[in-house]
Amino acid sequence: MTSKTKRGIFVALSAGAVLAVSACSGGATPAPGGSTASGGTDGSATDCAAFESYGDLSGKTVTVYTSIASDAEAEPHIDAFVPFEECTGAKVEYEGSREFEAQLPVRVKAGNAPDLAYIPQPGLLQTLVKENADKVVPVGEAATANVDKYYKEFWKSVGMVDGKYYGIPIGANAKSFVWYSPKVFAEKGYEIPKTWAELIALSDQIAADIPADDTTTKPWCAGIESGGATGWPATDWVEDMMLRVGTPEQYDQWVNHEIPFNDPTVVKAIDQAGSILKNEKYVNGGLGGITTIATTPFTDAGFPILDGMCFMHRQASFYQANWQTADPDAEVSENGDVWAFPLPGESATPPVLVGGEFALAFRDAPEVAALQAYLTSPEWSNAKADATPNGGWLSANSELDPNKLVKPIDKMSYELITADDAVVRFDGSDLMPSAVGAGSFWKEMTDWIALGKSTQDAATAIETSWPKQ
Question: What transmembrane ranges does the database entry give (predicted)?
């Protein structure tokens, strides 16, 4: 896992390539239309027709290197390669390492790069490409065509470096959620807010309803402690606010440093985050005062909701995995102990902040190109969903079958990020230079909370830290 998860096919395929029947191994039987069928990740037959353009890759091997090292997390990825292997004859060798981010640049420079690598942050993708321009292979025609067809243009733009396309989208997560207890809301008569004004009104109502002698219970709970990455949850707050007080275009300008970090719009966004995070009436339910936000582990920060000492907690879709840590019996559902609603904006359709992973190729070969084409296809997204029976994963591929997403929060996330009218932007700090995105931005937001540093001073310090061109 990265700090925030928290953290193309790179050559064109030959148009006339066809899959030899022998490429599907293991006693496969012909499928309708003359293609070959083999076992799918969900136990059903795999229709190999969609794989025919990849050609017969028997005897070829593609190496994949990722930060996903534990067997439990790696197995779904490995299983999702099965249809590709059975229908093309290629073999995929998977390697996960907890030292991924330190080792990958070393391996690339030493000429020992993997064929493919899953990159957890676009900032790292940008650095790898710029520092190793002759060793990273641009996305080729097949994968580019898939991304153009099945993904919103935004996802392609994140993988671009200096006008060339290098990184294809792999996984995705939605960050703009507020977790709450449906049972408690029903008991108290609280309604889900649809706009920012309604969210603030609800916060005020909850604060007013708390007995005067109860100094522990508050409307909100939060935590930004994350070891060496302390501060990143606060940057997510600011990014969400930038999408709400400014325009998507201003967000892009901010991330690309086309406007300074201490621009009035950015200062307004930080202050809007502070209207909750630095409001004594609102925080920090069950955990203490404002400054405890800086020392509360982000993994635990929402738990007071289960004890009735907090009512709302802003955190990403991936936080769903944390609730059973606090209470193995906690039901995460629309009518259960805990659930989430989209963080409201100024309109009924709020913008969505997202995170995700991307894949880079380091070898120019048909089998590598074929695997990346597969990774951008509906076949892979659906195979990966089938191979993830415990949920907690989704793709932004428009042809992913949402019924294959077993967790309700994953289904809601998918609907939000693929909606026709969705305004979606990638995590800003992940796109910024690491000295800022994983450096001064994290640090200054921590000082902003822990030391009471002013918004203007924090924003100016971050602006000063931005690397000079």
Answer: none
453, burial (CB in 10 Å: exposed 0-12, middle 13-18, buried 19+): middle
**3-class SS of residue 205:** helix
Closest by CA to 175, choosing from 347, 369, 416, is 416
Torsion, CA 454, CA 457, CA 459, CA 462, rounded to 10: -130
pTM, two decimal places: 0.87
Pick the CATH number of 177-350+433-465 from 3.40.50.150, 1.10.1060.10, 3.40.190.10, 3.60.15.10: 3.40.190.10
Q: Which residues contact 52 (CB under 8 A, 6 or more apart)?
A: 17, 18, 19, 35
DSSP-assigned states of every residue in 304-365: GGTTTSEEEEE--GGGGGGHHHH-TT--BSTTSSBEEEEPPBSSSS--EEEEEEEEEE----
Q: Cβ contacts of residue 134 below 8 Å, gap of 6+? A: none
Where on the phi/psi map is residue 89: left (φ > 0), alpha (ψ -120 to 50), or beta?
left
Backbone φ, ψ for residue 60 (5° rounding): -90, 150
pLDDT at 207 over 80: yes
List, for residues 156-167, the tens digit of each pLDDT value.
999 999 999 999
CB 50, CB 86: distance < 8 Å: no
CA 214 to chain centre: 37
Q: Tens digits of per-residue pLDDT, 113-145? A: 999 999 988 989 999 999 999 999 999 899 999
Q: Where are the domains of the chain?
A: 21-174+354-420, 177-350+433-465
Separation CA 292–CA 285 (nearest Å): 10
pLDDT above 90 covers a percentage of the chain that reads: 84
Q: Does the structure show a pLDDT above 90 at 103?
A: yes
Q: Quick check: 299 and 325 in contact, CB under 8 A? A: yes
The rounded distance, in Å, linking the Cα atoms of 31 and 42 is 17
Q: Three-state SS for 192?
A: coil
Query: How far is Cα 115 from Cα 243, in angstroms, rounded to an integer?
Result: 36
| 166 burial via Cβ count (<10 Å: 0-12, 13-18, 19+) | buried
